[in-house]
Amino acid sequence: MRVLLIYSNQRRDLFAAPPIGLCSVAGAAASAGHEVRVLDLCFRNRVRSNIEEAISKFSPGVVGISIRNIDNLNLLYPVNYLSETREIVDVVRTATNAPIVLGGAGASLMPAEILEYHRADFIVVSDGEVSFVQLLAALDRGVNPQPIPGVGMMRNGRPSLVPPTFAQPFTYGSHVGRWVDLAPYRRLGSSYPIQTKRGCTHSCIYCLYSSRLEGTRLRLRPPADVVEEMDEAVRRYRVSSFEFVDSVFNEPTDHCVELLEEVIRRPWKVTLAATSLTPGNLDPNMLDLMWRTGFRSFSMSPESAHAGDTGFPVGYRAERRLRA
Q: Is the model's pLDDT at 321 over the cut of 60?
């Protein structure tokens, strides 16, 4: 089956990030024998004509649309992006009779509302590599896809979703460079995104990663597999900086250390960053290893040093490690 995957994100500021999830799904669908094309709209100026041209040339049997952000996360100047994504769905609907499948982190946050608002045929939430491929197989055979975990559709005028299981092993690399042009992202200063695990054992009240996106059980990607993807990116696409986008990069410690030591053994030198760490195990040895591996920056929420997350009394070891 021919599958067109559209990355709907058109933000060219802090939200201009290569579509790591969509690329993982593209790779999984291609491995299952489907012919896959990716249309990245982030740097396109003629969205309607770009979509129409891609559909006309490729004639997809299914069109997937990835929704990254619902809004701009700014309470002072709020901007809702869903009207843009619904316009994309409308353009696709007029250009082809192929089923439209929504996915992406934004779609997983409020799937029923997103599905109903966009008037799409299906929605895939959380891990898409398995459920989307199962949906493609069902559509290809003409059978009912209703029992597939993580897949939703409209039934009797109402959205119906089979909850995801969060049970699949995390074995799919994104290999972003195979699917999208990295050059415009580099010009904005974006690094190559890469993920070493899925799931989060924390229960921060402000975060939906564990409850909606990845589950509470850690699913670890083999460190050698992660570094092989990095090696491919360095050699084939001249990537010099990577950003680990795990929910918590430095948990569990042994997995993190094994990964960093594998990077050190490679002949190339790169700059590393991470979007999220916990201060719970950032002792001097870990920080030294991260520096030698190529880390020059990382983000960390101060509230993650709370005793409920680290297991240490507040103001004692957590505070000492933050100072390190």
A: no
Check if the beta carbon of residue 61 is closer than 8 Å to that of residue 3: yes
Angle between helices 47-58 and 82-95 (to 10 degrees): 40
Looking at residue 157, its pLDDT comes to 87
Same domain? 7 vs 156: yes
Report the amino acid identity of residue 172.
Y
**At residue 298, what are phi and psi to the nearest 5 degrees?**
-160, 160
pLDDT > 70: percent of the chain: 92
232 and 278 assigned to the same domain: yes
180, part of any domain: no
Predicted TM-score (pTM) of this structure: 0.90
Both tokens of residue 112?
Answer: 């029923």
pLDDT greater than 90 at residue 13:
no
What value does the mean pLDDT take over residues 133-146? 93
Cβ distance 241 to 270 under 8 Å? yes
> Which structural domain, as residue segments, surrounds residue 122?
2-161
Looking up residue 254, the CATH number of its domain turns out to be: 3.30.750.210
Mean pLDDT of 115-140: 95
- 151 and 8 part of one domain: yes
**Residue/partner pairs of 291-297 with CB below 8 Å, 24 or more apart:** 292/264, 293/260, 293/263, 293/264, 294/263, 294/269, 294/270, 296/271, 296/272, 297/273
C-alpha to C-alpha distances, 238 to 168, 192, 306, nearest whole angstrom = 32, 10, 40
Residue 136 in domain: yes
Residue 307 in this model has a pLDDT that exceeds 60? no
Q: Are residues 109 and 203 in the same domain?
A: no
Quick check: helix, strand or coil at residue 147? coil
